[in-house]
Structure formats: C-alpha cells, structure tokens
Amino acid sequence: MQMSGGQALIKSLELEGVEVMFGLPGGAILPVYDPIIDSPIRHILVRHEQGAGHMAEGYAHATGRPGVAMVTSGPAATNVVTPLCDAYMDSIPMVCITGQVPLPSIGTDAFQECDTTGITQSVTKHNFLITDAKDIPRVVREAFHIATTGRPGPVLVDVPKDIVDPKNPRSAMDWYWPTDEEIRDGLPGYRPTTKGHPRKIREAAEFILQSRRPVIYAGGGILKARAAEALRELAELTGIHVVTTLMARGAFPDEHPLCLGMPGMHGNYTAVTSMQEADLLIALGSRFDDRVTGKVGGFAPEAKIIHVDIDPAELGKVRRPDVPIVGDCRLVIEEMVRALRDLGGSEAQPDRNEWKSRISGWQEKYPLTYEQSADGDDLKPQFVLENLRDNTPDDTIVVSGVGQHQMWTSQYWRFNHPYTWVNSGGLGTMGFAVPAAIGAKVGRPDKMVWAVDGDGCFQMTAQELVTATAERIPIKVAILNNAYLGMVRQWQEMFYDERYSEVYLSPDLPDYKMWAESMGCIGMRVESPEEVLPAIEKANEIDDRPVVIDFRTDSREKVYPMVPAGLSNDDIVVDPTQGEGGH
Ligand SMILES: Cc1ncc(C[n+]2csc(CCOP(=O)(O)OP(=O)(O)O)c2C)c(N)n1
Ligand SMILES: [Mg+2]
C-alpha cells in the first residue's frame, strides 16, 4: 500500500494502540497533523509544549501505558526538554514525536531548526532522527519497544518535514509493518535482563533468613514492574516491614501493619531510623537516591544490601550491594518468595521480636505531627490535606507539584492502591501537577483526580487549565497558597539565618479564584478551618469542569521531620514539639 510518511506515522501510532496524544502543531509537523483529522486517536491541544510532555507522563503514571506527545521543531522541541528529563529521571514510558526542518535544510540554521536529537540525547533513553519515509513504521515500533521494556523511559522520534509531507516526493512510501522478531533483531544491543540469576536469588533468600533487623526498601521500580502484589506476598511471608519511597507511595498499602511509609529527607522518623539501624536492606527497584540516603557514608552503616534492579547501571552506583540481582522486580520477587519457601519459609527465620518492638517504639514516640492553628490563625496545610484525604474516595489519584506541599501530601495522604500517586520525584519539576493531573484524568476518567499544588508551582503551568476546560477534563486543584516559594523559604529560615531572599510571592497576586474562573473552572477561596470541608464537598460534586480551590495556608509552617542536606540520617530533626530527635 502506498501512502505518505505523515499518514504512515499516524497509522503506526494507531497500530501501537495509542488512544490519546498530547500536543501542539507548527510548521515542521503540519503534515503529520493533517491525517489526525481522519484518525480515531484523540488529540489534546495543549497551551504550552511542556504541558504536553507532563500530560503524557501523568497518563503513563496512572495507566502504565506509554504517554505520547507530539510537537513541532525548534522552540517546541526545546519546550519538551523538561518533561523528557523528568520522565527520564522517574523512568516513565513516553514517546515524543518532534517535527524537524526538511532534510536538505538540516545544518543550515533554518527557521525553527534546532539539533533536537543532540539536545535531548542525555535526557532520553534513546532518540531517533528518521531520514527515510519508509523507516517510519519500524522506528515508531522500536520507539515504543524501547520506551516500555527494561527500565522504562522517554524515547524521542525526530521527523523531518519533507519525509512526511505528501507534497514532497520524498514522503512517498510503501507501507510495511515489521514483526516483533524484526524489531528485536533490529536492536541487537538491546536485550534487557528480566529474569534474575537463580543462584543470586537463593543467596538473597539466605541473607533474609539470617537477618535479625531487615527492612524492605521499596522504590518506584515496584510500580513499573507491576510488582505490588508480589511485594505484599514477600512482606507477609517474612513479616518484614516495608518503607515506600516517594516514587513508591501506594506500592504497598499505608494501612498495612508492616508499612512504615516514606523514608528520606522528609520521611517519617521510623522509616528513616529503621533503615539506619537495619542489618539488611532489601532494595527493590530503588536507587539509593541522595534524598533517601542522606550522607552516603553514614547511611545504614550496619546493613548488608540486596539490590534488585532491571537496570544493571544502578547496582553499585551509590552503595555496593552484597547481593546484586539484575532483573524485573516482579519476576525476581516471585522467585525470591519461592526460594524462601524452599528454605523453610517463615519458620526458618530468627526471632525478630526485639526489632519489631523497637520499630513500634519509634512509631509511638515519633508519629507525624504538627501544631494545630490557633483561632484566627492561617490554615495549617496538613489540616487541609487531612480533610482532603478523609473526604475523597480511597482510590483517588493524587498529583502534586514540587515543594513543601508535595512532601506534606506524600506524608499525610494514605495511599492504599498502586498508581494513585503521581509526582515528580527525580527532577523535582515545579509546574508538574496541573498538566500531569490532566494526563492522569484522561487515562483514568473513572477516577477522581486531585492535584495538590503550591502557589509557586501553579503559576508555572496553570494555563493548561484552559486545555482541561476546553477538552472537558474535570480535574480538581487544591492550591496550598502560603504566599511563598515555601520550600526555599524553609531552607533560608533554617540554614541562611532567616534571610529571605526572593521567595515572597504574595497571597493574592494573582487572584487565583478569578484566574481559575477566567479559564473556565469553578474557583473558590478558603481562609478558615470551617470552610475547608464544605469547599471540598462542593468540589467533589462538580464533574463537568475543573475546580480550583485557593487554600490560604500558614506561610511559617515547615516540613518535619527533616534530614538537613549533607548530614547523616542519624541527624534527623523532628517536629519541635517532639523534642530533640536524633538517636
Ligand atoms: C522548575 C523549578 N524551579 C525551581 C525549583 C526549586 N524549588 C523547589 S521547591 C520550590 C518552591 C515551590 O514553591 P510552591 O510551589 O509555592 O510550593 P511550597 O514549597 O510553597 O509548598 C522551588 C523554587 C524547582 N524545583 N523547579
Ligand atoms: Mg508556596
């Protein structure tokens, strides 16, 4: 069958099962936009290309399927660099298609030309510049294959205009859809190891059976590998407690008695301290991020390490594992459970009662806490979050921006289901929440989606609420408006002698309620504790447009616990009402 490269590109996306894509057209990508009119694929027209990228990420987070973004050349391509990097850091499967100037113009500094593959090389798992129309179906298949297998990540496909433009003879091609084998054979250097080495898995089981103070250190890889059930089986078989990193919230239910919650810089005392004092860390799809380890030299000094990751580059990158296992988390955990059973299962384990009582002692002594606001004071952000948590469905998808509000959300929400927490962990991208929430809602229209955003973050990408209104994507946004770049203010207060440099934003410039309304949303403002619940209830009932609530919160509130940057996790600072902390 003869067709143009542009038609072939859209047809390839259809055959890859793409239902929705996020993007914004322009000169170089025009010929690919034309066949969208005749395609069943839903295209969501964004207001800024960064929004398209984060929407694709939110979609992928919530569904597990690759998100797709399509933009034009030059400034549009550079506008998606941030979401590409974000997806790369958080291992999110995503395919991004960019327009490029025609082949003969490449290298001439043509209008809207930029070296997209060069610019994005370090923030993508792989990228392609297609130079022949007939390669389009194969490259699209390879892009999806690479994005979704092994350690997932973003893949970019750069498409010169002349090979997709039906007006140019170079775009004419014979349609051919390569087979799975042809795709695999065409990528000889790419063979992700999924099955863990049986001897190593048995060794891991032996380590577990000898350990008196083990902790499972579950990372985002659990979610990527669809391994939540396997993790639960491992934890329940062994009775070992589980910490869930910022990227793994929801991978193990917060309500489970073995769940310790989030470790790290703003993790809770017990999660941080149990890792510190452990004699064995079972790291599953986690990467010893500096926000988790604190000062690496002082991290979990007595712990032996079992490290399971599908990306061999992670093993030993930060901390040398005693038992390294390359493989898919789900498959490896299942094998580990089998090996543990073969070796006698829970019966064969040492008595861990002392360890368990130390853990419950920490939990009792240092729960998450905050001082309630006095009459007439500004709202406490934690109070708003508790109300939101307790008055939304259990499987609500929560999306956050980056800053104090993100840490409080991760701390105070109760995640009981996988794929209900969407945030920017690795890159820490302000402006992530609104577009990512839109993408999540497009992927899971059956679920309630709440974005919890900071006032600073909201101002970076709020215009995508225009997209949400136009496309009837009824997300809900809670702005924790503390009038500051709060997280930076917190560091200036604690580590720069309260010298507040360039962090004040103002509570009412812009007027968030009016701004929301001008974008077609319902806007509300909440200033006192009595107004919190009615506003949430009203928002929950609205299902035909986006809602934005401007919660005026206390500027002075800080996130605790905190391990100050550069210090060891032993130096954890707890809420001032809990005394000294440390241990
Ligand atoms: C794009 C980007 N720029 C700067 C930062 C640095 N940064 C991290 S948190 C933060 C403050 C965020 O302010 P806001 O959205 O109001 O959240 P809050 O901390 O007040 O809850 C800043 C500036 C960042 N993470 N991302
Ligand atoms: Mg703020």
Oligomer: single chain
> Residue share in helices?
25-40%
What integer is the average pLDDT? 97
Gyration radius from CA atoms, angstroms = 25 Å
Number of strands: 20
The CATH C-level name of the largest domain is: Alpha Beta
- Total domain count: 3
Low-confidence stretches: none
Tell me the name of the CATH homologous superfamily of the largest domain.
Thiamin diphosphate (ThDP)-binding fold, Pyr/PP domains
Largest sheet: 6 strands, parallel
Structural class: alpha/beta
Brief summary of the model shown:
The protein is α/β, with parallel strands linked by helices and 583 residues long. The protein is built from 23 helices and 20 strands. Thiamine diphosphate (TPP) is lined by residues 401-405, 428-430, 454-457, 480, 482, 484-488.
Describe the structure.
- With 583 residues, the protein is of the alpha/beta class.
- 36% of the residues lie in helices and 16% in strands.
- The strands form four sheets. It has a six-stranded parallel beta sheet, sandwiched between helices.
- The protein folds into three domains: 2-186, Thiamin diphosphate (ThDP)-binding fold, Pyr/PP domains (Rossmann fold, 3-Layer(aba) Sandwich); 198-365, Rossmann fold, CATH 3.40.50.1220; 381-559, Rossmann fold (3-Layer(aba) Sandwich).
- Helix 3 (49-63) packs across helix 18 and helix 16 (381-390) packs parallel to helix 23.
- Helix 13 (290-293) links the parallel strand 12 (280-284) and strand 13 (304-309).
- The protein contains 23 helices and 20 strands.
- The mean pLDDT is 97.
- The chain is globular and about 75 Å long.
